[in-house]
Design a protein that fits this description.
single chain; alpha/beta; 10-stranded mixed sheet; 7-stranded mixed sheet; globular
Amino acid sequence: MGLVTPTEPVPLDQLGRVHFVGIGGAGMSGIARIMLARGTAVSGSDSAASAALDELAALGARVRAGHAAAQLGDADTVVVSSAIRDSNPELAEARRRGLRVLHRAAALASLMTGRRVTAVTGTHGKTTTTSMIATVLLETGAAPAYAIGGVLAATGTGAADGAGRDFVAEADESDGSFLMYAPDVAVVTNVEADHLDNYGTEEAYRASFSRFIARVKPGGVLVTSADDPGTVDLAADARARGLRVVTFGAAPDADYVVSGVTARGMETSLTVRGRGQHPFGLIDCDLRLAVPGHHNALNAAAAFAAAVELGVAPGQAAAALASYRGAARRLEPKGEAGGVRVLDTYAHHPTELAADLRAAREIVAGGPGGPGGPGGPGRSAGGRVIAVFQPHLFSRTRIFAAEFGAALGLADEAVVLDVYAAREDPEPGVTGRLVADAVPGGAAHYVPEFGDVPKVVAALAGPGDLVLTMGAGDITRMGPLLLAEIGGPGQPPRVDQA
């Protein structure tokens, strides 16, 4: 569908019965869940049966596996995502009938009406930062509504309605749909070239963030990084527009200064100091996180700053962040077999791969068996890091192949699958081999067939190693297969439950 044209939200009570095409997706199912909680009649379909469809059916939705024009029934409004092609029979039928067709972001905007909205966007860290803000508001009794692009471990869902005044949402910039929102608090974690299949140029991608901050409501605030070059430029733009800007990061002039970041195993600690435009005076808080990685320290700083700007006392925000237990597919533990741990991550951009591989290095260095330390070039005494990466989109693979290879060079071994096509048609000559060949030192194994990967990884991994499955496609199914193969017959793996 390409880039989405912004529209003003339609009040929820004017949508009538709502039919979702692709209702099982993370974002779509969350919106449907909140609509059901507010009494809206919901139906929907997806390409195949899933747990998400079963959960929505239990909540009262009429759901079907497979797509057919007749499944629209008496729908008044049809909701689609950018992944739905014009040829979809339900979308084609909706247009033939002249029904209202909304992008999922427009449907989400309808749910935001009348709430104080915090919208979190950026090239990286959106899901985690949104999850952290939602956790703080939940833990401090604010009863927010929230919509996240992943499952919040503490609640087992990525979206829920709440009786409080706040609505916290992950704002997807990939297709321009974040321009549907008019937040009171805009959080921009970072800005780096991505989604060029839609935007065409890096300049156009960056310009979309300027359009996003122009939609912040009068009296609102932009919370953004003082360290990231893209957001530094964005902050200057915002100030020129008269928007209040609050910054976080290691920069000494940040409003919330981050220091003392320490990672050990699956935990991270940091200190946040500052004085913002709030009633709490000087801030000097130590944060303790039960998630790994320096990048998660910055995500936590963003969430902390946003929470304080929303009126949460700094000490309460810090205590709530200590209770955060992560989100699905964000360095999510999948289990252990034969002394090998398996984690899963949604990382699908070179910067994200590099950040998660550095975090994996910190995990094996600080995990069971002692603090670890250098075990040779690119290695830790606690064990090796083995990356299993599935490139996502042919266009992204073609554009960033060299950068993906460089990032995977941070692992001791890399296994690269073929490209997960998602919404794109194949491009001649663009395969996972482009990435594998770009990994320095010949440390990559190109294994195009999904089913062949477990045996390859089992041959590479040994006790103390950590295997990290990476990508935005169906690589998330790989974890249990790896654990079964590594464990071998008669050695059932320990599987971590979500």
